[in-house]
Design brief:
The structure is a single chain. The chain is mainly beta. The strands form five sheets. It has a six-stranded mixed sheet with strand order 4-5-6-9-11-14, with no helix packed on it. A five-stranded mixed sheet has the order 7-8-10-13-16, with no helix packed on it. A four-stranded mixed sheet has the order 17-18-19-20. The relative contact order is 0.10. The model has no long low-confidence stretch (mean pLDDT 93).
């Protein structure tokens, strides 16, 4: 399926059985849909570092998958691979659980809404949460790998909690999040840590891995730093002030 008409009437749509896949941005800007159902025949849901097949479908809260599909399933309207190990697509307008503990410092900010990754998930795929608009916090649970662009341009995201299980963070895994001012990493994680400014480094303190897009002011890298990721360099070229030790 290549493209869904942006203004087509109706709040639900079932992709016809026999369709093999949904193109990246196939449902882009669809303004009326709240629920999409994928048939048993779907085998391919391609994504990029900036989008999945359902990115920016304005009111989409659930992506359902036919129980007979052998490649994918859904858990509460979120698409996973059939084995539950990879999170493929999160609906653009799906709400998290309201939790005042995650409210922002300003009353004008989006109220705190947290989404907890299902316990079976080990990998968050490319573009899985791209541009999702309602969640402000994510608890990664047992996630081992965060792919490039997994949380691209999640506008209201303020809190990402990395547990002890995270083994791989690809470059640019979390970017374009202007309200995200710091990261937190479980102190028992053997691979990564966050410094006093909420910037993520490898555990040996030699590589800067992730810099929070919403952090303001100057920043000095740790004196032990030998390498920084390309995504950090890009932030610097866009006007962020930093000092490389």
């Amino acid at each position: 399926m290549k493209a869904y008409p942006v203004a087509k009437a109706g709040t639900t749509f079932t992709v016809p059985n026999g369709v093999y896949g949904v193109s990246t941005n196939g449902f882009q800007l669809a303004k009326n849909l709240t629920t999409i159902t994928l048939p048993a025949s779907i085998q391919d849901l391609p994504t990029t570092k900036e989008a999945n097949g359902f990115t920016s479908a304005k009111n989409l809260t659930a992506i359902k998958v036919d129980a007979g599909n052998t490649n994918f399933k859904d858990e509460d309207g979120v698409v996973l691979t059939k084995d539950g190990k990879t999170l493929v697509a999160y609906p653009f307008a799906r709400h998290g659980v309201v939790n005042p503990a995650y409210n922002g410092p300003l009353v004008t900010m989006h109220p705190g809404e947290v989404y907890t990754i299902p316990a079976s998930v080990e990998t968050i795929g490319k573009g899985a949460f791209a541009q999702a608009k309602e969640i402000t916090a994510v608890q990664l649970n047992n996630v081992k790998k965060i792919s490039e662009g997994a949380f691209y341009s999640v506008r209201n995201l303020r809190n990402v909690e990395l547990g002890a299980s995270v083994e791989t963070i690809e470059d640019g895994a979390i970017s374009g999040t202007p309200d995200l001012s710091r990261f937190t990493v479980d102190s028992t994680n053997p691979n990564y840590m966050a410094d006093a400014d909420g910037v993520i480094y490898t555990k040996n303190l030699q590589e800067l891995v992730l810099y929070p897009s919403g952090r303001a002011g100057e920043y000095s890298t740790l004196p032990t730093t030998k390498k920084v990721r390309k995504s950090f360099i890009l932030l610097c070229t866009e006007g962020y002030k930093s000092k490389l030790q």
